[in-house]
Specification:
The chain has two domains: about 120 residues, 2-Layer Sandwich (Nucleotidyltransferase, domain 5), CATH 3.30.420.40; about 160 residues, ATPase, nucleotide binding domain (Nucleotidyltransferase, domain 5). About 40% of the residues lie in helices and about 20% in strands. Strands 3-2-1-4-7 form a five-stranded mixed beta sheet. Strand 1 and strand 2 form a beta hairpin. Helix 3 crosses helix 10, helix 6 packs across helix 8 and helix 8 crosses helix 9. The longest helix has 25 residues. The two termini are about 15 Å apart.
């Protein structure tokens, strides 16, 4: 049996699966927005599972941000109370055993590579487009962390060939850089670009629901697909994955899949494009399932 924990900013979810990937039990709790509370929540789920099923074979944790290769402290987490904390060391001390830890986007990518939309593919790039924009790389069912533990973080590359128009209807990223993909293709980023352009105050759901009746919403979706294609073309030109799997709230927009693969052909450096962008299979369960598959 394997336990996976997805430590999110609003919820902490746990799952225990058998060696075939069958779900045995799942639990979801509210994440306390402080370090000690977050740790206690993780430990409580693990203890509950193991009190019922016995000792697990492995424990994997998916979390926002990454662990610094130099200090072993959390960095780049939008759950800011985790930053600067030795989460892996502390959990191993509390649980008295080894745990596996990875970025939540890496866990999503691993889940889809093992038995999701990327099953049977050698190189899978998993993309989360939700509150933020993250990514993870899986090769032969192994997460590629990278030397700096930031492999796959395409959300903080700059939108390629930004026009003056695109600069005008965009704001600085929380990372303090300008033009990050996250500020264009995350849910809040998409809504922000729309609202700046049309002087509205709508969220991403409202904008999408107004399509196709409202031409401004349709125009915004066309721009969104174009931005997504331009960002992902950089990934394909460098990594050349077999498949790209989308997750997160924006991945539920069917308009993306109706248009993205044709749009990509304009930007990828190849005469034949075999890489496909597809929707996830496991939905918002991907991160917690992927955490369980960590090894």
């Amino acid at each position: 049996m394997k336990i996976g924990i997805d430590l999110g900013g609003t919820k902490t979810e746990g799952i225990i699966i058998n060696d075939d990937g069958k779900e045995l039990k799942r639990k979801r709790i509210i994440t306390e927005k402080n370090y000690e509370g977050s740790m206690n929540g993780i430990v409580s789920i693990i203890n509950e599972f193991e009190n019922f099923f016995g000792l697990s074979e492995s424990i994997g944790i998916g979390m926002p941000g990454a662990v610094s290769a130099d200090t072993a402290l959390v960095k780049n987490a939008n759950s800011f109370w985790l930053n600067g904390k030795p989460i892996k060391k502390d959990l191993e001390t509390i649980l008295n055993r080894k745990i596996n830890l990875a970025n939540d986007a890496n866990c999503f990518a691993l889940s889809e590579a093992v038995d999701g939309a990327g099953k049977g593919k050698k190189v899978v790039f998993g993309v989360i487009i939700g509150t933020g924009a993250g990514g993870g790389i899986v090769i032969d069912h192994k997460v590629l962390q990278g030397r700096n533990n930031v492999a796959g973080e395409w959300g903080h590359i700059t939108l390629p060939n930004r026009t003056e128009d695109e600069k005008n209807f965009n704001t600085k990223c929380y990372c303090l850089k300008e033009g990050c993909m996250e500020t264009y293709v995350s849910g809040p980023g998409f809504a922000n670009c729309f609202n700046l352009r049309y002087k509205k105050n709508l969220d991403s759901h409202e904008i999408i629901q107004n399509h196709p009746k409202n031409k401004d919403s349709t125009n915004a979706l066309n721009k969104y697909v174009n931005h997504l294609a331009r960002g992902l073309s950089v990934v394909i030109n460098i990594l050349d994955p077999d498949i790209i799997v989308l997750g997160g709230g924006m991945s539920n927009v069917e308009y993306i899949y109706e248009n993205i693969n044709e749009e990509l052909k304009k930007y990828v450096f190849t005469d034949t494009l075999y890489t496909r962008v597809v929707k996830n299979i496991h939905g918002d369960s991907g991160g917690v399932r992927g955490a369980a598959w960590l090894s």
